[in-house]
Structure formats: structure tokens, C-alpha cells
Amino acid sequence: MADMVSIFMSIGLNEQKAKETLKNEALSSTLKKAIEQARGLLGSASIDKTAGTMLYNMVTRLKDSTRLSFLTEYIITRKINSELQLSAALDFIKSHPQENLDRLQFDAACGVGVVVTPEQIEDAVELIIRKHKDQLLAERYRFNMGILMGEARTALKWADGKIVKNEVDMQVLHLLGPKTEADLEKKPKVYFYSVFLWHTHNPFSTKKKVHKKWKNYKTEGYVVTPNTMNLLKKHLEETGGQVRTRFPPEPNGILHIGHAKAINFNFGYAKANNGICFLRYDDTNPEKEEEKYFTAIKEMVEWLGYKPYAVTHASDQFQLLYDLAVDLIRRGHAYVCHQRGEELKGHNIPPSPWRERPVEESLLLFDRMRKGMFAEGEVTLRMKMVMEDGKMDPVAYRIKYTPHHRTGDTWCIYPTYDYTHCLCDSIENITHSLCTKEFQARRSSYFWLCNALDLYCPVQWEYGRLNLTYTVVSKRKIIKLVETGIVRDWDDPRLFTLTALRRRGFPPQAINNFCARVGVTVAQTTMEPHLLEACVREVLNDTAPRAMAILEPLKVTITNLPTSTEVRVPDFPANEAKGSHVVPFSKTIFIEQSDFREVMEKGYKRLTPDQPVGLRHAGYVISVQRVIKVRDHSLSLCELEVTCASSDSVEKPKAFIHWVSDPLRCEVRLYESLFLHKNPEDPAEVPAGFLSDINPNSLTVIGSALVDRSVGKAKVFDKFQFERVGYFSLDPDSTSEKLVFNRTVTLKEDPGKI
């Protein structure tokens, strides 16, 4: 095993990833073959990390193992050297299953040997700009620049996306000039509650409308009994006609992005209609519930900006629910059954031989259940009704000899969801029971039970769940990710639990805005993460103060700087009235390694030996005088010596770069998608299961980054825009000796992102 781990680590996998790969026998075997074939092609040379990552991605996605050596050869010989080419290669192989591939066709389909020159990029972008010139001039920077990028990527399929983006930005700037004050004025935003207020008139995008708060009986499927109007009248007297909703999570896990939609809809609908919303814990399964989940759920609801009218528990009503169960038996609508759990699974359950048991006998047996005179699974209380999905006589009570976190050992029988949910809604006088589509099959049982007990009956409305691609939200699967060490815990920033999103730096306003934009429909909604990230950028652009940070430092000595000084930097350059901070400026500064090139390349606008560059906010332009390298066989770059001149006294440089002086050292964590495929739980996409689909580059830790001193007093979860780098949030792992920042999102969506 140790040998295999070493082999996998030799291509760039970390130890944890290598060990996890070993758990998948088929994947391990195929990856080992690919590595052996690659080594055969390379001879004595080793497999570099780029090729190793490409090999790993190819093996995890290749369904036809007969093509392994073919693709390995293309990767190792650099004929395929990008994710875009690899995807095209896999698609070609899938659509050409014949034994002998036409290499010329394959090469053409995968862009093998295609070199897109800067001139070609420039010409193609120029044509696209010309096509949209009139609209660009009319709308200026309000024009949807994504249209330009989309057409450019279509025309330049194999070009580097970042270079294409830079060229588009440059030509747009050349056509329109710098942004004016009018360009910087923001469009009026549609805020969350107004969006939800519209949706509450027609939340399902159909002709149906949610019932008015006193018109339950007009809802399709609602059962009207001789006592319905009296019960509604009493309900109106008790509530004053107020809209009442509830958010009813089970306290057996951490809330995720799907729950954010439920929270927004329930609390948002109530707020839009001047109503109230309860936070009710559905705590009827003591085996899975923990106090930490209760605390975390309430914390996340409040973090999203909502204050429950009251925090309640299903367990608050255990005695009343028991009394109602006794009443249900007396009315002839429930019976004690001795069928075992395995007999009750599925939909073709044989009718219970105890269905017509005498009422008095069921009452006696139910009392004995309550007193702990049966073993777990030996008996249940079942309701005499057929659900919409055909399931017959659902269970109302079962025995569990597990102490409850609130009631201790008082109870050994616990009510089920099918029994508890509608009764708690009735007890709390809920007007709109809003739940996701999978509960539609329980709607008839919801109405039946309230009517069988002659209680006020709320109305259940279903809406589609919110799902995201490139993630899993199942409690069981997240636990597996934690147990295998793939993620640290439920709040690992690569997950889409709400605690993870908070730790990564997602503002609650952005999550609420995202839910509002998704809206509420009957159909399940599946969105891509970049749409949520766009909402995050929109909020952070207005709220995250600017700072300067260097992830890969290059030391620069300014030989002619007269004296050390301080520079005032605006917190929000577009609105300097919002404040500023001061940073030191001395002879020794640090810049990003990528902001210097020793050899000039066409289109490169930053620092070279022949090209000066401006320093943001400092008022200086620097020019290279000397390039200092390490005196060993590598001759790697270690320092620059430059001279500076006031920006007023020299020609305006082509670019301005960020820098730090006398900085703080910090750790920076960069996150990418946790999974390689859009739907990691789909066997058609990932046959080996979601654990085989982990992106080996989902976390990059930079331990020696530098940041300016303005962030020195930041508190956990404080957010910043590191100029030209991205948005970052201070992680709870930070100490007084070392700050730790999580990258929340990049400044702009990466067109080459997974």
C-alpha cells in the first residue's frame, strides 16, 4: 500500500488524496497503468504536476479503458495540455467507439497543435467589438460584456481564456474610454422582500394562487367537513387574520444552501404579508439529534437576517400529541400493529392482520407501548388511511429507548413526521404550510389527520427544491467526506452548508439575493455555483474595504527613494468618502512575481527591464535597474533593484500594480470546486461514486503570503477585497501571530473554471 501511495504522490497527489484513491480498486489499477505507461514514454524524466493532474483527471473520467495508453501518450507529449482539450478528447472517444481512431480527426477535434497567436486574438475580438459597436456606444458599461466573451470564446475555442478576456477589456476601454460618473451609477437594485412579495402572489408560476389566509376551504384538494367553517372562525379569532408560517428543520445536521431557500420563503412570505414565522424544531427522533445542531440552526437563521417570532419544538407538544393519538384510536382511525419494520418498507405492503383490532384493545396496547412494555420494533401505532403515493396506513408512533435531549426518559414512544407535522401546524395556527415538492405525496394525509381529529386544518403548499451542481448536500455524504478526511468538518469552505459559506466569507445578503433571483416554482431548480458567486461579488464590491496583499512575493528595492513615508489608500476607490487607511511606503517593497517578466512579450503591460510600471496609490512609477538572481545552477530570480520617479513627472505607464511594504505575513487558502463533475452523485457521470470524483486542486494553501498592515486588527469573518487578487475573509484559525484568509471568490468569474 505504501508503494502505491508513493507512486500516486509522484504525480502530484497529496498523501490524503493518494490514500483515498487506493480505496477505489478499479481507479487505482487504471491510474497505476497510466503512470507506468507515462514513465515508459518519459524514460528517466519525472512526471510533472501539470501532467500528473491531467492524467488523474483523465483516468477518473475515462469510460473506455482501451483508450488509456492512447490518451496517456497525448498528455505526456503535451499534445493535450488543457482541461478544455481533455474534455474534447473524452467526448470524441465516447462518440467514436470504433477500434481504429482517425488521428487526424481526433487532433482536429481536440485542438492538437493549434496555436492561437496574440494577433489572431486581437483580430477576432476587433471583429466582435465592431459587430456590437453601436449598442456598446449607446449602453456603454451597462452593456452585457458576457456576450462579447461568449462570442470570443466561440471564435477562439483553443485560446487561453484569460488572454482573451484581457483583450476584450482592453478593446472595450479603447472604444469607450474610462468609466465616467454616469457609468459608475448603479442601477436601482430589486431587494429581496419586493421580489418575494411578487412571488407570493404567484409563487409557482402557474395560474394557481396561494389561498388567502381565511380562504383555506377554497384550496384544491382541501377537505371540507361540517365543522370546517366553525374551526376557521375560531382560528381567525385567535390569530386576528394574521399570516403564519414556520421553518421546521430536523436538528440532525447542519443547514445547507437548499435550506436557505426554505428559510427565505417561509420568513420572506410572512414578512411580505405582515405576518409571523416560527422556527420549529422537528425533534421526534432522539437517536440522531444533538444539541450542537439546535444551536447551529438558530444561529444560521439569525445570520441570514431573520428573527423567529418564537422558537418551538415538536417535543413541546409530546403530551398533547399523545392525547390526540388516543383520541384517534377512540374514533376508530388508528390501531396498534405487530408487523415488523422490514414488513412495512416499500409500497406493496400487505394489509395488516390487526387493522380491524377492537378499539379498546388498541387503547390498552398503546398504553403498554407508552409504559415501555414492548421491545423496539415490536409494535407500532398506525393510521387507517391511504397516502397519495399508494402507501397504506402510515406509522404514527414507534418505540425508541433513547433518551430525548429535552424530555430525557419521560417518553419511549415517539411520533413520526407524518403524524406530527400537520398537528403541530394546527396547534400553532399556521396559515401556510410551505414545504418542498417531495412532501406532495403527504398532502392528503395532512388534510386527513386534521379532519379525522376535528382540528383546524392549515393548507400545505409545495415548491421545488434548490440544488447546486459540483457539490453534495446529503448529511450522510458530508459525514463520509469528513470521516475520510477529504474535508475538515461541516464548515469546510468547499462545502455548501451555511456554516461553510459563512466561513468562506459569503455575506448573508448575497445568499438571500441569490434565493430571490432563483424564485419559487413547482419544478426543482438546479443552479451552478457561479450564479451564487456573482451575487457574492455584487455585495462585496459595495461592502468589502480594499487592502493590498501579495500571494507570491518578489522583493523590490527602490534605490533612490528619498525617505520612508506613508501612503493613504481609499477603502473604496469609487467612493473615497467612505473612508481610507494608511500604509507604510519604504525602500523595500514586495510585488507579485507575475507582475514582472524578464523577457518582454507582446501584450504584456506590467514591469519588464524595458517597461516601467506605476505603483497603485503611491504616486510613483518604477523602472528596473538591476535583476538579482540566486547564485546557483538554477539562477532563479530573487530580487529587483529599481528607481522611482513621481508619476507627475513621467509619461503615464501602461499599467499600475499593487504592492506592500513592511507587511504582515499571513496564510492564504484558495478554494476551487470540490468535485470534478457537475453531478458527482450521478452514476452515469461518476460510476465509481462521489468519493472518486474529488478535485485534487480544490484547496491550495499559500503559507508565506504578505498583506498590508491595515488588516492587522481584523476580526474573524471580516471581509476585504485584496486589490487585483480577489475577495477574502478572515478565518477562525487566525491567531495574533498569524492571520489566515480564505478566498471567498475571485474578482471576476474565471472563464476557464470547472
Automatic annotation (TrEMBL):
Residues 242-541 form the Glutamyl/glutaminyl-tRNA synthetase class Ib catalytic domain. The keyword Mitochondrion does not apply. It is found in: Cytoplasm, Cytosol. CDD domains: GlnRS_core. One of its GO terms (molecular function) is ATP binding. SUPFAM superfamilies: Nucleotidylyl transferase, Ribosomal protein L25-like. Coiled coil: none annotated. Keywords: Acetylation, Aminoacyl-tRNA synthetase, ATP-binding, Cytoplasm, Ligase, Nucleotide-binding, Phosphoprotein, Protein biosynthesis. It is an enzyme of class 6 (ligase). Its EC number is 6.1.1.18. Residues 656-731 form the tRNA synthetases class I (E and Q) anti-codon binding domain. Residues 3-161, 164-189 form the Glutaminyl-tRNA synthetase class Ib non-specific RNA-binding domain. GO terms for cellular component: aminoacyl-tRNA synthetase multienzyme complex; cytosol. GO terms for biological process: glutaminyl-tRNA aminoacylation. It comes from the Eukaryota. Residues 544-629 form the Glutamyl/glutaminyl-tRNA synthetase class Ib anti-codon binding domain. Its main location: cytoplasm. It catalyses: tRNA(Gln) + L-glutamine + ATP = L-glutaminyl-tRNA(Gln) + AMP + diphosphate. Monomer. Part of a multisubunit complex that groups tRNA ligases for Arg (RARS1), Asp (DARS1), Gln (QARS1), Ile (IARS1), Leu (LARS1), Lys (KARS1), Met (MARS1) the bifunctional ligase for Glu and Pro (EPRS1) and the auxiliary subunits AIMP1/p43, AIMP2/p38 and EEF1E1/p18. Interacts with RARS1. Part of a complex composed of RARS1, QARS1 and AIMP1. Belongs to the class-I aminoacyl-tRNA synthetase family. Glutamine--tRNA ligase. Plays a critical role in brain development. This is Glutamine--tRNA ligase.
